[in-house]
Design goal:
This protein is mostly helical and about 40 residues long. It is built from 2 helices and no strands.
Length: about 40
């Protein structure tokens, strides 16, 4: 990925999703409404 196309918000989102994949128990620690919203935008 080139540096000029590197969006820090997108990078942060990717890192968050990777972290959730590594430890799926985290998904059950967040409120249901946030979990549903996360799945919808993923």
């Amino acid at each position: 990925m080139s540096d000029k196309n590197n969006n820090p918000d997108i990078t942060s989102c990717i890192e968050t999703m990777q972290g959730l994949l590594e430890d799926t128990n985290q998904l059950f620690e967040i409120p249901e409404a946030q979990r549903v919203a996360l799945f919808k935008v993923a």
